[in-house]
Structure formats: structure tokens, C-alpha cells
Here is the input.
Amino acid sequence: MIELPEASTITRQLNETIIGKRIVNVTAAQHPHKFAWYYGDPQAYHELLHDKVIGEAARYGSFIEIEADNARVLLAEGVNVTYFHEGDKLPARHQLHIEFEDHSSVVGSVQMYGGLWAFPSGEYDNPYYLTAKEKPDPFSEGFDEAYFDNIMSQSAKSLSLKAFLATEQRIPGFGNGVLQDILFNAKLHPKKRLNTLTDPDIHILYHSIKTTLAGMDANGGRDTERDLFGRFGGYRTILSKNTSGKPCSTCGDIIKKEAYLGGSIYYCPTCQRG
Here is the structure.
């Protein structure tokens, strides 16, 4: 699932790889997926994007936006975005294939669900996309401790930390994946309520957000997710499907997994306070 560190990594890689390439063919929705989301008619993507030249890619939260002259391609959520050189074997099933003049390609393949939107610049008004463009995220200068304290003060005190961090787009780019290690590094349980946090807890949580995400970004994303070239990220997750049921790297207790709020949480029962 694309979250902040993966969006940052893939955006950098796109800018290093495809700027200046001319689009010669676009195929969308060739392999139907119930939860692949498009803008308008995906069969119109070729007409919209054909002969356009790729400009700069930008990241807004976990959205990846690719400039193509006066059009935009927007990718988000559970989309595997992969670059293929000429002659590389493409995946058997995909939901978006953009081929360039040099016969290289970018392919988008949806896992559980994901967005593959193409539209004239300025036309797409999805509120999640617009919010991600407007709000500071943890990689921006505007996301300082005063801003974080303000978000927390405006949130219902009955919320759990997972609900606070991963719902309502309070922090663009956050999802169920990155919050696991952030909370582990802050020594806070994902079910802990906001009204039980002390001022030192909030201070530690803010700095854990900044430092944990910086580590994920510096290492090309998490080891549970793939980059533009199909490689797993170099950041070794402390809490994830890769470590569930294994000893905690800090205390040796067994990492727990639970279903919670429509997804899974991972935690160390010794290191993370409830």
C-alpha cells in the first residue's frame, strides 16, 4: 500500500527515470478490477495522454501526480507502480499501461484497491486529493510541533492513537502501515486513548513521527512495499506482517497481531503501554 515514504521514494525515482519521455500508447482497464478507480472513462485515457511529454512528478501525501503537458496522471492507495525497460516482461494483469516512445513503460497494477486517475490539469476535484495538496505532511516545514499539537487539540479525546493517526486525513500520507513503527518507537500502544496521553507522550510521539518517517524515506521505503523497479524498500520494519509472532527486537517478547478498526495492529505487549 502506498503511504508517505513509498510515495516519496517512487516520486523521486520517476523524476530520475521518465522526465522528457513521450507517451505513444495508453491502455487502461484492460484487466477489470472491481476496486480500481478511474476518472471518467478509462478508454479515453489514450486520447488524453497520447503524444504528451512527461514533466515533473510530485507527491501530495500518499498521492503521486505525474505531469504530462496539460494533463495529469494520479496514482494512490494499493497501486503497484513499476517501470519496465524495452523488452522487459510486463505483468500478466494490470490496470494501467503507459508506453513511451523508447518502448519503456510505466505500469500500474491494483492490489486490493487503488486509484489510477488521468485528467486535464486542474479538473479533478476529489476532496481527498485536494486536502492532501493543501495540508502540511510530516516531510514539510509546516508540520512543526505547534501544528501537530493543534491537530491533536482539535481531535476527539476518546479516539485511539490508531484512529487519530490513520483516519480523517488528519495527516496526509498516513495509513495503517507507517503508524506501527511510529507508535513502537514512541512506546505507545495503538489502542491508547488521546485523553490518557501526557504532555511528554505527545512530544515523544511528534518526534517519533518525524524521525521514523525520515528513516523510512532515507532507506527507500519499507521492506513490505516495492519501489518503482519492483524492489522491496530497505527500511526493516519493526512491526509488520514480516515480524508478527517473532521476538521483539528490544525486549524479546512476542510481537502481537490483532484485528482493530478495519485492519490489523501490531504491537509489543511489553514495550508499548496501553
Remarks:
- The radius of gyration is 20 Å.
- The CA atoms of residues 82 and 111 lie 13 Å apart.
- The first strand starts at residue 23 and ends at 28.
- The domain at 4-133 is CATH 3.20.190.10 (N-terminal domain of MutM-like DNA repair proteins).
